[in-house]
Structures are given as structure tokens and as C-alpha cells.
């Protein structure tokens, strides 16, 4: 991996993100201007909002593909760096957490891209689809939290061990001081 390859990937991610943002702004503006207009083509009654929703979905798929593709490359690179820097034996958990995060973003983009088509569906179908999106998102969040917890568990246990050892020494030192005070007081009583 050389510097030029990194530049190309960074340009592609940033360029795709900018193009996706511009496309979303333009399509939202067009929907605000022309939304709700109906016309007939090929014997079908079409709504401009539905057509713009389809174009929005295509833009999300196209530009999102390039963003996700290069994001996975940088996710692998970042997990390697973090695994080496923090002395983690494997990078699998870091990669898994990153993938869960990317899957959450992809689910949100899919919801955003598909939402214009929901108004064409019956209310019951919309509820089922919404429920499925929520369940899928919760599964990704659960896996992300579980993965992060397992990565931090060893560090947390080490911190608890260190704190309990320090507190144990402090308490042992205090009880030793109290015993000395009792012994000194006892010796003074014996002397008198």
C-alpha cells in the first residue's frame, strides 16, 4: 500500500460523500418544487415524488457503494493500527465493531432511500417493514455493544484489580496505624 493508493481512496470517499450530499439536496429541492405532480406514461399514472424517490435510492446505492467499499479498506487499516498500538492480539473485534457501525449506517441509508416508496404500500405492510428495520438496527447495536464490551472487558478488569489493590494497601496501612496507636496507648497505661 503506497501513498498514492491512499490518496485515491480518500478522494473517492470524500468525492462520493460530496456527490451524494449534493444529489440528496437537489432531489429534495426538486421534490419540494415538483412533488405531488402526476402524469401518465406508458399507461401508468406516475407521481413525481415516486420517480424522484427512485432516483434518490439509485444515488444512495451508487455513491454509497463507493463510500462503503473504501470505508472497509480504511476500517481494516485502522483496526490493524489500533491492534498494534494497544497491544491487542487480534484485530477481529475492532473490525467487527467497525462493520457493525457501517451496517447501522447502511440500514439508515436504506430506510432513507426506501421511504418514498412506503406511501405506496398499505399501512400494515409499512408497519411490518418498519418493525423489521428496527429489529435489524437493534441487532447491529446489540452486536456492536457486545463487541465493544468484550474488547474493554480485560482493560476494565485490570483497572478494577489495580484500584482494589491500591485501596487494599491504603486500608491495610490505616489499620496498621490504628493498631500502633492502640499499642502506644496500651504501653502508656502500663507505664503509669
Write a short abstract of this structure.
The chain has 192 residues and is mainly alpha-helical. Helices cover 86% and strands 4% of the residues. The chain has 4 helices and 2 strands, in the order H-E-E-H-H-H.
Please give a structural write-up.
The chain has 192 residues and is mainly alpha-helical. The chain has one domain. Helix content is 86%, strand content 4%. It has 4 helices and 2 strands, in the order H-E-E-H-H-H. A two-stranded antiparallel ribbon has the order 1-2. Strand 1 and strand 2 form a beta hairpin. Helix 1 runs antiparallel to helix 2. The chain is elongated. The mean pLDDT is 80.
The gyration radius over C-alpha positions equals 30 Å
SSE order, one letter for each helix or strand: HEEHHH
Low-confidence region ranges:
none
Helicity range of the residues? over 70%
Strand content: under 5%
The biggest sheet, with number of strands, parallel, antiparallel or mixed sense and barrel status, is: 2 strands, antiparallel
Total count of domains:
1
What integer is the average pLDDT?
80
Question: What is the count of β-strands?
Answer: 2
